[in-house]
Each structure stands twice: as structure tokens, then as C-alpha cells.
């Protein structure tokens, strides 16, 4: 998680995106299309990793992109579109999870004879389903999306210290549930 | 209740997934592992479960090939009440 200087291609990408944001603010639909093109796939993948459902992820990603584009005029820093979009998406995702009935997890089933990977995948789904939305989101952003503390704090709009303690709690809970599997 | 050393071990064994530990910290973890089987077992399960999560959790989501669906919806005017903006979690955190 150390500071590093930007590579030329990264700098070019930032300049390009800043230009799209500037143009999108004044109603340039081609710039809007470029912004959607750039972020849609990775945004949908991130949401899918949290909600564990590709179709629902598409739905939330679409909702978040629409909201971000409609409210782009409120964005003061043109270089911050990604942060703005991901914040909207993660909050929409957590709202969606909270509104759902408490998850009871996937039904227990006889797992003997299953491929080890399939068995582990089922176990992951069950374990994640038992985590509360804030812990699940923090855990997935760190362990699956590999975001650093600052990025997670920024997206969730919480202090870095809270990210650290929430991540600790999420990992401990995940480990406990993992240990209890099959009991 | 966890002993202080066990608590420190737990804290550092989590943190080693996120940052490079100092020599002192690594040395403490190594020493404690040999003395406390419970902590060593807990750490093994933690790492195994989180490694499995990182490896197997990603879901392949394939968004539509075209972005026309979003662009068409954007063309429709949206009416947003002042209330919805005031209550938005982002209202106080404009970038």
C-alpha cells in the first residue's frame, strides 16, 4: 500500500477520463457512452462479488451508472468520477442487501462425492450469506477486489481506522463460520 | 478471553495479509506460533479460508454487449424530489 508514481499510460487514462467527465457534464452523449464503457464491466464484477448474483449485479450496476451520470454535475473534481460511481454502487448494493430478508444461507446438502472446488464454492456462498452486509462488503472489497484500506474507506465513506476494525471483525467472523461448517 | 499475547498475535496475523510486517513483528509471530497451538491453528484456518475466498469467490458477471439500455434510459427526463437528494447518503460528501 505504498505511494508510487503514475506510469505514463495511467496518466493518459486519467486525462482521457477527466476529459470525458468534463464533456459529459455539458451533455456530450459520446463522452457519457465512453464513461459507461470504461466502468461497466469492472463495476458489475465488483457488485457481483458482493451480492453473489450476476443478474442482480447487472441491475444494481445499471442503476448506479444512471444515478452517477444524472448527478455528474454535482461532481466538483473531474478526476474523481470512479470514486463517485463506486460509492453510489456500493451504497446501492448494501441497501439492496439490507432490504432482503435475513439470509439463512444455502440449504445444507450432502456434499460427499462433490468436486472439492464445488464443495468449497458452496461453502463460501453459505459463509458469505451469513455475514452482515457491512462486514461482507468490507471483506469482499479487500480479499476479492484487493482494494487497499484507503480505497475501501473512500468508497464506504468511513475512516481508515473503521475499515481496519471492520475488516478484523469480518475476517474473524468468516473464520469462525468456516470452522463451524459441517458441524 | 484471549490473553494479551494471543490478542496481539491475532491482530498481527490479520495485518500480515495487508502489509509487510517488521522483523520484530515477524519474530513475535514465529515465537508465539511455537508456544501456542491454539493460535497457530486459528491462523492456519484463517489463511486457508481467506485464500479460498480470494480464489473461488469471484463471480463471472457478463454485462450486456451494448450500453444502449442505459443510454436510452438516460434520454428520459428524471424528476427527483428535493427530499430524495437531502436524504441521499452522498449529499454531505460531494466530491
Q: Would you give an account of this structure?
A:
The complex is a heterodimer of chains A (183) and B (95). Chain A has 183 residues and is an all-alpha fold. Chain A has two domains: 1-100, RNA polymerase sigma factor, region 2, helix turn helix motif (Rna Polymerase Sigma Factor, Chain: A, Orthogonal Bundle); 106-183, Winged helix-like DNA-binding domain superfamily/Winged helix DNA-binding domain (Arc Repressor Mutant, subunit A, Orthogonal Bundle), CATH 1.10.10.10. Chain A has eight helices and no strands. Chain B has a domain at 4-56. Chain B has helices spanning 4-15, 23-35, 37-56, 68-75, 82-86. The longest helix of chain B is centred in the middle third of the chain and has 20 residues, at 37-56.
Write the layout of secondary structure elements.
The complex is a heterodimer of chains A (about 180) and B (about 100).
Chain A: H1 8-25, H2 29-51, H3 54-70, H4 81-99, H5 116-129, H6 133-144, H7 149-156, H8 160-180
Chain B: H1 4-15, H2 23-35, H3 37-56, H4 68-75, H5 82-86
Domain count of chain A: the total is 2
- Kindly report the CATH topology of the largest domain in chain A: Rna Polymerase Sigma Factor, Chain: A
Give the count of helical stretches of chain B: 5
DSSP helix fraction of chain B: 55-70%
Q: Give the quaternary arrangement of the chains.
A: heterodimer
Please report the total strand number of chain A as a whole number: 0
Sketch the topology of chain B as an H/E string, one letter per element: HHHHH
Which strand-content bin applies to the residues of chain A?
under 5%
Low-confidence stretches of chain B: none
In short:
The complex is a heterodimer of chains A (183) and B (95). Chain A is mainly α.
Keywords:
heterodimer, A: 183 residues, mainly alpha, Rna Polymerase Sigma Factor, Chain: A, Arc Repressor Mutant, subunit A, 2 domains, elongated, B: 95 residues, 5 helices
